[in-house]
Write a structure and sequence with these properties.
By secondary structure, the chain is of the alpha+beta class. 62% of the residues lie in helices and 10% in strands.
């Protein structure tokens, strides 16, 4: 549920600001607000603080990250890092930044130059490999190339679908050189053709400019390869490639040596500076005058006394925490803080699908934690499937407990599998009708009804609709409560009118079904007469349309019956097929595959529909959202 929040003001002498901030950061309970923006200038003139220091540390962290991107990653050494941390944590901010700059001055230029050289060499190897590939392409036509001095050889690569561009180039070369050129084309592969051009060097600039203008991929061998036979070019390429690889290996050794020397200390310094930076980032919220500082924010009511005593023990009466009176508008902006019991916390994950509730709204998470497993259990309703889902969820939680997403989903399935097993006993289902056929289970008889889902379709439908009425009415009651608390009269009229109108419709339907006596029509008419003006005052003409929408919401709960029915029928089909084949083994395999499919569907489909019934049918009756999440000023725990 949402916790009560108090707005506070922390005031003390300017000289104590840094120590107070450290103490509050350690406590991790205050959601900060900007004191310089909230407190009027005519009341007290406050200025922001320490932005320059924050900018400096941000710059240092950026440089350290750049150094890390060039150094080889080595394994963290917890013992060494602990020793370094002990020696560095005694330093103040300026001393820690000075140490970081000292290391940066030693490493930055060296690592940058080595990294740049390595990149250059890597690109050189890529280029050499490309030259080798080009030579492989043109080697078959080597004998056709004229061996003339003063001529240049250029290779063009053209996609097969654009081969006509070669004719355009040939015509242009004829014009430029006066027919003093040669062009030989050959197929590289199904998609590419290579053209080798030979022309006098004096036309080189003009020809290359034209080739560039028609957007053709041109490959030019370096001058050192010009005029050499192919075997010499291959040898030169391989020699240069090996030289580059040796140089890269040397650079890697140098970088590894630097990493072995400085990596552990850099890791510790980076973590310490990140912690300081998160503190300094909050300094823009603090205000200082010539003699005092002011910190403003919100704190959970349950943490107020503890935080106040912590400040008093450290600073006595030099620093005080003052609780501020709040207005209705202030309460609208109060941050939202969930603090639910362990069995409710997993369902906070589902609440992430919508915006946080406003501070004065009802937190629907505990209601979600009750009805979601109920809906899931009714739809699955099988002892065997419930046990399989429970086992699967336990395995997922054990193997992926470090992943919050997987852990929350596993916990939701664990909680929801219990009602699935309970309803399985009620419906007498163990992998469909397998348990009943073996004599292990039988449907329970309640209210004179044997709750076999296949035979009790009408009772199941009535049960589903009844649950829908309860759920929707609960949403309307919460909507009325929220309207009263927030003093929104139109919402109060609308929700109250909707509640009375739906009640009247239910009474009329019950009367037509002869469940209630005929005279029930009179109180139903009275309810309609009272409800209609309320709806019109609250939501206008469109409110009457919303009545039919709400009726549709209630009928939507029939999916609790329909999805469960589909599941049990598929399970029964699997059981029948197990004995329908001449070879029993084939029948068993088919049955197992169908049951496995049904289990997968039983995990996903009921979950999705249970979420929909809450977010669409239930939340629409009261939930607005748009609250501010509670983000305490504290050290982030990995």
């Amino acid at each position: 549920m949402l916790q009560a929040m108090k707005r506070i003001q922390v005031i003390g002498p300017k000289a104590e600001l840094g120590h107070v901030v450290d103490q509050l950061y350690e406590a991790g309970t205050i959601h900060l607000e900007s004191a310089t923006e909230i407190i009027p200038k005519d009341e007290i003139c406050l200025n922001g603080v320490r932005q320059e220091e924050a900018d400096e540390i941000t710059g240092v962290l950026g440089t350290i990250s750049a150094i890390f991107s060039t150094l080889p990653v080595i394994a963290d050494d917890p013992r060494v890092q602990a020793e370094i941390h002990t020696s560095l944590e005694r330093k103040n901010h300026a001393e820690l930044v000075a140490r970081a700059r000292e290391i940066i001055s030693t490493l930055e230029t060296t690592t940058r130059e080595l990294a740049a050289k390595k990149t250059e060499l890597t690109l050189s190897i890529t280029t050499l490999n490309r030259y080798a590939k080009v030579l492989d392409i043109i080697q078959p036509v080597e004998k056709e190339l004229p061996a003339l001095e003063g001529f240049e050889v250029t290779i063009l690569l053209v996609q097969e679908e654009h081969r006509e561009v070669l004719e355009l180039i040939k015509k242009e070369l004829d014009t430029i050189t006066g027919n003093r050129f040669e062009m030989i084309a050959t197929t590289v592969d199904a998609d590419t053709r290579a053209a080798i051009m030979v022309f006098p060097k004096k036309y080189s600039d003009e020809i290359h400019s034209f080739v560039y203008s028609v957007n053709v991929n041109e490959v030019r061998l370096p001058k050192e390869y010009a005029g050499r036979p192919f075997y010499e070019i291959y040898a030169l390429i391989e020699e240069n490639r090996l030289r580059a690889q040796d140089e890269i290996a040397r650079i890697d050794r140098d970088l590894l040596a630097l990493s072995n020397t400085w990596y552990q200390e850099l890791v510790v310094i980076k973590k310490l500076l990140e912690t300081i930076n998160s503190q300094l980032g909050a300094y823009r919220n603090f205000g200082v005058s010539d003699y005092m500082f002011v910190i403003m924010g919100w704190i959970p009511k349950k943490n107020l006394n503890k935080t106040r005593k912590m400040i008093e023990n450290r600073f006595s009466d030099r620093v005080i925490i003052h609780e501020l009176p709040v207005t209705e508008k202030d309460m609208e902006n109060a941050p939202v803080f969930y603090d639910n019991p362990p069995w409710v916390k997993p369902f906070e994950f589902i609440m992430q699908l919508v915006a946080p509730p406003r501070y004065r709204e009802v937190d629907p998470t505990p209601i979600l934690a009750i009805f979601f497993p109920l809906f899931f259990g009714i739809m699955v309703g099988d002892v065997g499937y419930g046990l399989v889902i429970l086992a699967f969820a336990l395995v997922i939680r054990h193997r992926f407990q470090a992943i919050g997403f997987a852990k929350n989903l596993a916990n939701i399935l664990i909680i929801s599998s219990i009602p699935a097993i309970i309803f399985g006993f009620l419906f007498g289902e163990f992998f469909g009708d397998l348990g009943e056929n073996l004599g292990w289970l039988h449907p329970v008889q309640v209210l004179g009804i044997t709750w076999n889902r296949v035979d009790a379709m009408i009772p199941m439908l009535i049960l589903a609709i009844t649950i829908g009425i309860i759920h929707v009415f609960l949403g309307l009651f919460i909507g009325i409560r929220n309207a009263i608390i927030t003093k929104k009269r139109k919402h109060l009229y609308e929700k109250t009118g909707m509640l009375l109108m739906i009640t009247a419709i239910i009474v009329l339907v019950a009367m037509l079904a002869k469940v209630v006596p005929a005279f029930s029509v009179y109180p139903a008419v009275v309810l309609i007469v009272v409800a209609l003006p309320l709806i019109l005052m609250g939501a206008g003409v469109f409110g009457t349309i919303e009545v039919m929408s709400t009726v549709g919401n209630i009928l939507s709960y029939s999916r609790l019956m329909a999805i469960g029915m589909a599941s049990v029928i598929l399970a029964m089909v699997a059981n029948r097929l197990s004995g329908a084949f001449a070879f029993a083994v084939i029948g068993i395999i088919v049955a197992l595959l169908l049951h496995a499919l049904n289990v997968v569907l039983a995990m996903f489909s009921p979950s999705i529909h249970a979420v929909r019934l809450h977010l669409v049918e239930f939340f629409s009756k009261f939930y607005e959202g748009g609250g501010t999440p509670y983000k305490p000023f504290k050290r982030e725990v990995p």
